[in-house]
Amino acid sequence: MTQATDYLATIQATVAKRDPHQPEFQEAVGNFLKTITPVFEAHPEYIKANILGRITEPERAIQFQVAWQDDAGNMQVNRGFRVQFNSAIGPYKGGLRFHPSVNLSIVKFLGFEQIFKNALTGLPIGGGKGGADFNPKGKSDAEIMRFCQSFMIELQRHIGLDLDVPAGDIGVGGREVGYLYGMYKRLRGAERGILTGKGLSYGGSLARPEATGYGLIYYTEAMLKENGKRLAGKKIVVSGAGNVATYAIEKAQAYGATVITASDSNGYVVDPTGIDVARLRRIKEVQRGRMSDYADVVPTATYYEGSVWDADLTYDVALPCATQNEIDATQAKRLIDAGVIAVAEGANMPSTPEAIAAYAQAGVYYGPAKAANAGGVAVSALEMSQDSRRMSDSFETVDGQLKQIMETLFAQSVAAAAEYGVPGDYMAGANIAGFTKVADAMFAQGW
Ligand code: GLU
């Protein structure tokens, strides 16, 4: 064992010992540590400064009670979180997730990933994440509003323009950000840049709703192009039907690919003629309906229960845009057998470590979440910049910057992988490029 491998093993063991009940956080740290040995071999000074010991422990983790009244007049209690992971390169930045599965492990895995994702965008934002174990499904607008207001009454004391700027994630979209911002404003006064993903009329950015999905496609096209291929003419399977999936489908089809699926937590639709994005948006955003409703109104679509990754389909590119660990080893094998040449992740950590190993073994081009889905947070940082300038940039300007950011971060991942002796490993490249930026900033600032 070299000094570097020894050090990395100690870090993983410390995390496992300190947080034995946080499997998702351990998984995210494990995926990361596996790829960065060469950095520590080249930079022993990072070992002495114990950069990894510091980067794997959040600078601050806040847990709070969210009490709110449901429509029947009953008091409900949920648990809220904000994890401020690392501020070496800028204020903490990352979304809020409202989902019954949310706990400290989930928020920490997301916050940890966010550190490197945000660094990769090239913009001055640190890593953070938050949320609550609240289930928005089936709740009325009034209940969502009261929950968001109660959540913000506590969160407002922990955030700030140069401190921590939240946004959306699963279960938190434009409606929720609006209610959160409204409450913040009543408590602290108008500060537009305090949240991103806002509505256009009160400081939001054009192209922010589209950004994660569009960015995923810009990244995927760059990855295919690097290997002499293109999205045009490809058959694609997308999971999810939220913001990320919807705009990934739209942009992939604009590039001449056919996206044949979309899914929710109950099931998926297959439409060999290509998913109709306008219909999908109407069902999801306006009617807040399910994928089964889509099949009811689109004659070419068929609805199936279960995971789309268990479907018996033939396709070229897989874009998981639903949630963590949605593709396990068996499902990875199925998609490889189905002929998939590339996987790019719109969701955060959708592939298990065994699935990632299977992609590598089969020579599938793999775009990890922290690079492939960085477009959302990148445009959030552009929204912060517009709010500071009190200006609104045009859709074309923001979309153009997004495309440039995604292409640059892919190129940097390629360069970092080559520099550290793992050419073609885009996961290692993303981890190394993101990490070295944060590590250099931490090193320069002392401790
Ligand atoms: N939740 C998104 C992510 O996973 C966006 C965060 C943001 O815009 O701050 O990166």
Short key terms for the protein model shown above:
single chain; about 450 residues; alpha/beta; Rossmann fold; five-stranded mixed β-sheet; five-stranded parallel β-sheet; 18 helices; about 15% strand; globular; binds glutamic acid
Written account of the structure:
- 53% of the residues are buried.
- The model has no long low-confidence stretch (mean pLDDT 97).
- This protein has helices at residues 3-18, 23-33, 37-42, 44-48, 51-55, 104-120, 141-155, 174-188, 208-226, 243-254, 277-286, 291-297, 329-337, 353-362, 369-372, 375-389, 395-419, 426-445, and strands at residues 60-69, 75-86, 92-98, 126-132, 164-167, 235-239, 258-259, 261-263, 267-270, 302-305, 317-320, 342-344, 365-367.
- It has 447 residues and is of the alpha/beta class.
- Strands 1-2-4-3-5 form a five-stranded mixed beta sheet, with helices on both faces.
- Helix 2 (23-33) runs parallel beside helix 6, helix 7 (141-155) packs across helix 8 (174-188) and helix 13 (329-337) runs parallel beside helix 14 (353-362).
- A hairpin with a 5-residue loop joins strand 1 and strand 2.
- The structure holds glutamic acid (GLU).
